């Protein structure tokens, strides 16, 4: 049954859903939460995150450089450093994506992000030399 448009003219309009114009699929909140969380952070908080990541990166790099074998030692410290580096990737990417007014901070975050990817790839290559490095 079709009704003429005039029959709807006196009705109250429906309000849009809370997630208008983007539907809440759950993906936005889980994957992008890290990126969005850094939009409101101060420059000092971002710099502190970069400093902590830099220290982790330097320590992990020195562990890998000190290995006598081509294969890194499997121990709690090495595993912890690898996991910290992997967890730092989305944090640093969030800082990169949320930094628009500080060129120095942006370049530092980009550099650390690249170094994180390189050290993780290097560790994986040392673990299994048959696995090709993907960048």
UniProtKB/TrEMBL annotation:
Pfam families associated with the record: GAT
Topological type in the membrane: Peripheral membrane protein
Signal peptide: none
GO cellular component term of the entry, any: cytoplasm
GO molecular function per UniProt: phosphatidylinositol binding; ubiquitin binding
Matches recorded under SUPFAM superfamilies: GAT-like domain (SSF89009)
Domain GAT, residue spans: 41-128
PROSITE patterns in UniProt: GAT
InterPro entries: GAT_dom, GAT_sf, TOL_plant
Subcellular location as annotated: Membrane
Transferase in keyword set: no
An individual GO BP term: protein transport to vacuole involved in ubiquitin-dependent protein catabolic process via the multivesicular body sorting pathway
Gene3D superfamilies: 1.20.58.160
Keyword tags: Membrane
Tree of life domain: Eukaryota
Keyword Membrane on entry: yes
Family of the protein in this entry: Belongs to the TOM1 family.
Protein name, UniProt field: ADP-ribosylation factor 60
